Amino acid sequence: MARPPGRTESPGGAAGVITEVKPKVAKPSMYRVLLLNDDFTPMEFVVYVLERLFNKSREEATRVMLHVHQNGVGLCGVYTYEVAETKVAQVMELARRHQHPLQCTMEKD
Hints:
Blueprint: E1 7-9, E2 15-17, E3 30-36, H1 43-54, H2 58-71, E4 73-80, H3 81-97, E5 103-108
Helix pairs in contact: 1-2
Organism: Peiella sedimenti
InterPro entries: ClpS (IPR022935), ClpS_core (IPR003769), Ribosomal_bL12_C/ClpS-like (IPR014719)
GO molecular function: peptidase activity
């Protein structure tokens, strides 16, 4: 005879109820994706990268680019680990393809 879902029988034949324990799901750690300043990558290329890979408007991309230029480092965005890792790889690949030494990194937020 089939038992109803969620019920078990104890050795004495009595039925017991199984309670489901919901696991606690922690929010994933977030990572900041940062662009690093150098003296060779054209400012327009940095704006292009910010627009294309980080979906920034022209004005916001220009603001971030100037921050990187003046302060040595600038925030592109905050993402989960996998997304941040992908963004860093995309920036590095795009810079390499265009023969620019632009560097990008990530750090835990």
